[in-house]
Design a protein that fits this description.
By secondary structure, the chain is mainly alpha-helical. It has a single domain, classed as Ribonucleotide Reductase, subunit A (Orthogonal Bundle). It is built from 13 helices and no strands. The mean pLDDT is 94.
């Protein structure tokens, strides 16, 4: 009970600055981009020319690319799961609309645009079976996810700090591939989405840094616990129609690794970045247990690197219902 009370006190302390965090890391609705800014304008006379150009550019993108883009889009579209998860954290009053619930709603509003934009792009591209993609999205929302945080805000903020940077990396890399293949509209979309993810990462990273100032030992233990469990991707339960829960995730992940969109080395790099930013090697006055947790976190990247060097990624692409090579025009 004492630890729970301390967590609530820390959350209430950080909450006092929530408006400044919103001003610093989020963008007002009337100023931020919207999906229609990045897609063909159907109110213009030449809208079909824009659609034709988008579809022509899309023809240069390969099979693994479409698998990764669909997986990224579906992950973004499962937003209802993520909002309900964050709203259930200790310290969040979704009914009384306290500062934390305000942050989560504003964050959700920004994230909502990502899936919306990518969904419309995929539909207009004509390169994927949208009904199968839509079934996968519904399955992912139905199945939910369990990332090992419980209702603990410390663990939740470790997860979001890590995951927002991971999505930044993924969208940024997809954008670079699209640009290299001449798909300018998709490259721009992915780069802008990646920018949003970076702002969100910086916010959650700052939440954790602030908590370290108030409750260093418990924050350190939460960090180590999350890394021992491993940071599970939001699309961990990815499936296709007729498949079992999580049956498609490994194939999607392998495609991302083959393309270099998101790899085991990126996972390790993110951990190193978080260790460095939070300066965990310099944090003092830790309990003995927290000291051991800190030692584990500092040694973990090199341990993971040795394992990563032995991992071989399958080079054969499994077939997805989302993308039908013989049916693409």
């Amino acid at each position: 009970m004492a630890l729970k009370n301390i967590r609530l006190e820390v959350m209430q302390t950080v909450e006092k600055e929530i408006d400044s965090y919103i001003d610093q890391y989020l963008i007002p609705v009337d100023e931020i981009w919207q999906p229609t800014d990045l897609l063909p304008n159907f109110q213009k006379e030449n809208y079909m020319d824009e659609v034709f150009q988008l579809r022509e550019e899309a023809k240069e993108l390969g099979y693994d690319f479409w698998i990764v883009l669909v997986g990224d889009m579906v992950t973004e579209e499962a937003l209802p799961t993520y909002e309900s998860w964050l709203m259930d954290m200790e310290g969040v009053d979704q009914h009384g609309r306290n500062g934390w619930s305000k942050w989560i709603r504003h964050w959700t509003g920004e994230e909502n645009r990502h899936g919306d934009a990518l969904n419309k792009y995929l539909y207009l591209s004509g390169r994927v079976n949208m009904k199968e993609v839509e079934k996968t999205t519904q399955h992912l929302i139905n199945d939910g996810f369990e990332v090992g945080t419980g209702r603990d805000p410390y663990r939740n903020f470790i997860y979001t700090s890590f995951q927002e940077l991971a999505t930044n990396v993924s969208h940024n890399r997809v954008g670079k591939i699209a640009k290299k293949k001449g798909s300018k509209s998709l490259a721009k979309m992915c780069n802008i989405i990646a920018g949003d993810e970076m702002r969100h990462h910086l916010a959650y990273r700052q939440f954790v840094k602030t908590i370290f100032e108030y409750d260093a030992s418990e924050m350190m233990l939460a960090f180590a616990d999350m890394m021992q469990k491993k940071i599970i991707m939001p699309a961990q339960n990815l499936r296709q129609s007729g498949g079992k829960m999580a049956s498609a995730f490994d194939d999607f992940s392998n495609a991302a690794q083959r393309l270099g969109v998101y790899t085991t080395y990126d996972y390790i790099d993110i951990l190193e970045k978080l260790n460095a930013h939070w300066e965990i090697s310099k944090i003092s006055n830790l309990t003995d247990e927290a000291e051991k947790a800190r030692d584990y976190l500092l040694k973990l990247p090199s341990r993971m690197l040795r394992i990563a060097e032995r991992i071989k990624i399958p080079q054969d692409a499994n077939r997805f219902k989302w993308v039908e090579p013989n049916g693409i025009v």
